[in-house]
């Protein structure tokens, strides 16, 4: 008789169709438990509603949640295709610490040698950030901004105690501001990076299961 507990599920949440496509067509082998890829829709309200619904009712209480997709870099010297691993997510409603940041960085560096990985606070916004507003957010200590990560993780921890993380791919930066995702080289580069990093997410998830064995 096998009395080992069932592997904890993993919920990977993104907002846009192009992000969801990248995740669905990436390498999905090696998952340490059941994985759900959720497209929440754009903006913090949509993300919060979707994640709250997905984690309600019969969803296992120990489901880990990872927010991913594209982001805007805030610091000078960031480039499209760079990776951001959040140490915490922030928005006006609160700050959520992330779990396993060091492991995610290690796995991303292993998967994509030569690709720059940034760590630090990831801040939330309810709109696309342009121009001088980037400098204002950088002054708060944040290194990148997107519209869904903070709302996703806040909704996740409000439904119960669980491990959470956020990994984003820079699609534009102060010196590389894009007009539309997916129509220029920066967007294509970010898509390819996002498509290639699923194994790092699965390794992060497996590491969470080790103490329970």
Describe this structure in words.
- By secondary structure, this protein is of the alpha/beta class.
- It has 7 helices and 8 strands.
- The chain has a 5-stranded mixed β-barrel with strand order 3-7-6-4-8, surrounded by 4 helices.
- The longest helix has 12 residues.
- The radius of gyration is 16 Å and the shape is globular.
Rounded to an integer in angstroms, the radius of gyration calculated over CA atoms is 16 Å
What is the molecular shape?
Answer: globular
Give a quick account of the main beta sheet: strands, pairing sense, barrel closure: 5 strands, mixed, barrel
Tally of helical segments: 7
What percentage of residues falls in helices of 4 or more residues? 25-40%
Please tell me the overall pLDDT.
Answer: 87
Strand order of the largest sheet: 3-7-6-4-8
Order of helices and strands: EHEHEEEHEHEHEHH
What would you call the structural class? alpha/beta
Tally of DSSP β-strands? 8
Q: What's the quick description here?
A:
With 213 residues, this protein is an alpha/beta fold. It has helices at 17-24, 44-54, 101-111, 132-138, 149-158, 185-196, 198-209; strands spanning 10-14, 35-39, 64-73, 83-91, 94-97, 117-124, 144-146, 164-172.
Keywords:
213 residues; alpha/beta; 5-stranded mixed barrel; 7 helices; 8 strands; 25% strand
Task: Provide the fold topology.
Elements: E1 10-14, H1 17-24, E2 35-39, H2 44-54, E3 64-73, E4 83-91, E5 94-97, H3 101-111, E6 117-124, H4 132-138, E7 144-146, H5 149-158, E8 164-172, H6 185-196, H7 198-209
Helix pairs in contact: 1-6, 2-5, 3-7
């Amino acid at each position: 008789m096998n009395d080992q507990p069932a592997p904890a599920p993993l919920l990977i949440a993104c907002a846009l169709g192009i992000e969801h496509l990248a995740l669905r067509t990436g390498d999905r082998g090696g998952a340490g438990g059941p994985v759900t890829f959720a497209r929440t829709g754009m903006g913090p309200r949509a993300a919060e509603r979707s994640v709250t619904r997905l984690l309600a009712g019969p969803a296992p209480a120990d489901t880990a949640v990872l927010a991913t997709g594209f982001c805007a870099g805030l610091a000078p010297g960031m480039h499209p295709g760079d990776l951001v691993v959040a140490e915490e997510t922030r928005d006006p409603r609160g700050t959520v610490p992330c779990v396993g940041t060091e492991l995610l960085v290690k796995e991303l560096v292993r998967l994509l040698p030569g690709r720059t990985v940034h760590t630090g606070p990831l801040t939330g916004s309810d709109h696309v950030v342009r121009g001088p507003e980037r400098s204002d957010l950088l002054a708060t200590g944040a290194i990148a901004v997107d519209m869904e990560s903070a709302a996703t993780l806040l909704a996740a921890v409000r439904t119960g105690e669980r491990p959470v993380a956020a990994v984003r791919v820079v699609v534009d930066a102060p010196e590389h501001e894009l007009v539309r995702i997916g129509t220029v080289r920066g967007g294509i580069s970010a898509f390819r990076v996002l498509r290639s990093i699923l194994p790092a997410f699965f390794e992060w998830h497996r590491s969470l299961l080790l103490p329970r064995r």
